[in-house]
UniProtKB/TrEMBL annotation:
PANTHER family: PENICILLIN-BINDING PROTEIN 2B, PEPTIDOGLYCAN D,D-TRANSPEPTIDASE
Origin superkingdom: Bacteria
Protein's name in the database: Penicillin-binding protein 2B
Gene Ontology biological process terms from the UniProt entry: cell wall organization
CDD domains the UniProt entry points to: PASTA_Pbp2x-like_2 (cd06575)
PASTA domain location: 583-643, 644-700
Length: 720
């Protein structure tokens, strides 16, 4: 026995000595084996970039969610005082079915049918993107074996909001089991690579449970978060559009609606939406149409095209509004062009013809200036080619220019096709003194890892098809379609604001055969308008296809409800002073930059304004609103200086003014709601740092000024 055990001892001793001397065992390096056993690599996930509006308000961002896992192996409970694997399949399936979109029977099947030896199972799409509420409900049941892994989910806080522009992104798993967020449509898809960023990693040594060993070194390659995209979209104006479209959709159930709102001075798209629409988080409402129709599809514009025909005639000095012509019919090359009432209105002036939207008047204008010269202007206005907007798959439309009859029908918006982007771009030339502005929707793109701006878009001129004088003449003419006795745009008049615009009614090609659809409501109704008419600050194009009209209604009724709601609310939000007789007196704001704050405050108070100081005082660096803005007396003027800021009383402030204060002050102001300020979390006079949040609560005027219900008395009941 002594020899046996002694021999084994010397054999073991020799083996240990050999390993120490060579560092190898079974032909493998021991150091490498140890490194492989204890080395760990942890992925540092990059945050997907945000998409925000022009004021920095979130439109799309990552938020915390949870992934559900059910542990089935009994090994998980070894050496544990608590059960760490699923023990009650029935109860577990019942609880999960109440909180995730999966039937109890399917959950139970997944738990019980797992192969022998399976350590854990997941629940596919139903088990991912679990909200905090569902997570909390399941955790409260303390189900053995049910664990959660923190995950990220794309969050769209505004619901149905420019959904075909923004698109959506969702978590997807590749063949290797890696889960990433992938943009599927809209900006989320176009800028998927820039938004996604690059994951980092951390290398460290751990014990067998994966816990980092003391004093072990960490090697970190930091994650590079995705770029942040700021749009030209204004969240408040976009909400006005969405609310108006919801209302008209509910009342008229049109087959299609499109709206674009643009700043004609810059080409910035401030709102863009369509119906049908969908919720980007749930995809509820998403059909087989994935196109942003304002950019990717074409329409026959109808009579809205006439504003460009008249603009061309004016530029060629062929427009004489007091001349008369015979309305009703115009025969050319064997074809007959008719006015929309077929018989016309007898001999009328060209001015009245435009106000009545006469097709025949366009035919006589083409006689005067030449149809080929007219087509040159149409191309100068950008029709027939892409605008170059920073969105994918833009259509170019098609100009019919082979035969004289095609050029004639183009003059009143039939035959040739256009996009909504081409229409608003062309209209900016009329609104902007002849200078046409290229539309764009990306304001800037920022790298959050170093705060550098990688793309900063500026307004871009896209030609000058007409002179400033002609543009002014056209605006004056467009205003008469709203104010004149015969104008087709009378129902589009705005409360307190002048408006210029043109109605349109276009035929719809028959999808089941040759020709066009006919019958009540089977048309594409539209309005392209700008306000205030003398100096337009907003330009809005509204299209409604095949609304279900009530008895006595016409196609322009739903269009007018949509347009007037959007424009009136937007102009008030932008602090554009109304022009009606009841409007308060307005004054032009001076430039106070570079002046001493005390002097500027005194001047503003003397002029009837309410100055608000941002900073401790001294030299004024910037102001809002900018110089030469037209403001009503009593309006707030923000003056920015260096130093810490005493909080004002925000009560009654508009959302736009609060956002401007936030931008100038750099304070962490968090806004809840829409409308005007009713509450603030910190009181007036508080001095705070940039890292301390202030919560501002807003309410719409309809809630703030809601009348109290009158108490019923015996007298009131008898009298009623």
């Amino acid at each position: 026995m002594f020899l046996v055990y002694g021999g084994l001892f010397f054999l073991l001793f020799g083996r240990v000595l050999y390993i120490q001397a060579t560092g190898e065992a079974e032909g493998k390096a021991m150091a490498s084996m140890a490194e492989a056993k204890y080395a760990r690599e942890s992925t540092l996930t990059a945050d997907r970039g945000t998409i925000s509006d022009r004021n920095g308000e979130l439109i799309a961002a990552d938020t915390l969610s949870y992934r559900l896992i059910a542990v089935l192996s009994e090994k998980a409970s070894v050496d544990s005082k608590k059960q760490r694997h699923v023990t009650d399949f029935e109860k577990t399936a019942a609880v999960l079915a109440e909180n995730i979109p999966m039937e109890k029977e399917e959950i139970l099947s997944r738990l019980t049918d797992a192969k022998k030896g399976t350590y854990q199972v997941e629940f596919g799409k139903a088990g991912r993107d679990i909200s905090y509420g569902a997570f909390r409900n399941i955790k409260e049941q303390e189900l053995p074996g049910i664990i959660f892994v923190e995950d990220k989910k794309r969050f769209y806080p505004n619901g149905v909001f420019a959904s075909y522009l923004i698109g959506f992104a969702q978590r997807e798993e590749d063949a290797d089991g890696n889960v990433t967020t992938v943009g599927k449509m809209g900006l989320e898809s176009v800028y998927n690579k820039q938004l996604n960023g690059t994951d980092g990693k951390m290398n460290f040594k751990s014990d067998k449970w994966g816990i980092m060993l003391p004093k072990s070194e960490k090697k970190i390659v930091p994650a590079q978060d995705g770029y942040n995209i700021q749009l030209t979209i204004d969240k408040t104006i976009q909400n006005f559009v969405e609310d108006a479209m919801n209302s008209v959709e509910k009342e008229y159930s049109p087959k299609k609606m499109l709206v674009v709102v643009v700043n004609p001075k810059t080409g910035e798209i401030q709102a863009m939406s369509q119906r049908p629409a969908f919720h980007p988080s749930t995809r509820v409402g998403l059909t087989d149409n994935w196109l942003n129709q304002a950019v990717e599809t074409t329409i026959e514009p109808g009579s809205t095209m006439k504003m460009f025909t008249v603009a061309a005639a004016m530029e060629e000095n062929k427009w004489t509004p007091t001349d008369f012509y015979k309305s009703g019919q115009y025969k050319v090359y064997g074809d007959t062009v008719r006015d929309h009432n077929q018989t016309g209105w007898g001999y009328i002036s060209f001015l009245e013809g435009f106000q009545r939207s006469s097709n025949v008047s366009m035919a006589y204008l083409l006689e005067r200036m030449g149809d080929k010269k007219f087509m040159e202007y149409i191309r100068d206005f950008g029709f027939g080619e892409k605008t170059g907007i920073d969105l994918p798959h833009e259509a170019s439309g098609r100009l019919l220019d082979t035969y004289p009859i095609e050029r004639l029908t183009t003059s009143f918006g039939q035959g040739s096709t256009v996009t909504l982007m081409q229409m608003v771009q062309a209209a900016t030339a009329i609104a902007n003194d002849g200078v046409m502005m290229k539309p764009y929707v990306i304001d800037k793109i920022t790298n959050p890892n170093n705060d550098k701006v990688v793309q900063d878009k500026k307004p871009e001129e896209h030609g000058q098809p007409i002179s400033a004088g002609t543009a002014k003449q056209v605006r004056e003419l467009l205003a008469t379609t709203v104010t004149s006795e015969h104008g087709t745009g009378k129902k589009f008049a705005l409360n307190g604001y002048t408006l210029g615009g043109k109605t349109g009614t276009a035929e719809i090609p028959n999808p089941n055969g040759p020709g066009y659809l006919s019958g009540n409501g089977n048309y594409l109704y539209s309005f392209l308008g700008m306000a205030p008419a003398e100096d337009p600050q907003l330009l809005t194009y509204v299209v409604v296809q095949q609304p279900k009209l009530k008895v006595g209604e016409i196609g322009s009724d739903p269009v007018a409800k949509l347009f007037t709601s959007i424009m009136e609310n937007s102009l008030k939000y932008m602090n554009i002073v109304p022009n009606d007789e009841d409007a308060v007196e307005a004054s032009v704001l001076d430039d106070f930059t570079g002046e001493a704050s005390s002097k500027a405050i005194n001047r503003l108070q003397q002029d009837g304004f309410s100055p608000i100081l941002i900073g401790k005082g001294g030299k004024i660096n910037s102001q809002y609103p900018q110089k030469e803005s037209k403001l009503s007396l009593g309006s707030i003027v923000l003056l920015h200086t260096e130093g810490q800021t005493n909080l004002p009383d925000f009560t009654g402030w508009s959302k736009k003014m609060v956002l401007s204060f936030k931008l100038l002050s750099g304070l962490d102001i968090r806004i809840n709601g829409e409308g005007y300020v009713t509450e603030q979390s910190l009181s007036k006079g508080t001095v705070i740092g940039a890292d301390e949040p202030i919560v501002i609560q807003l309410q719409p005027p309809s809630i703030i000024h809601k009348p109290k219900e009158e108490e019923l008395t015996e007298e009131s009941i008898v009298g009623g």
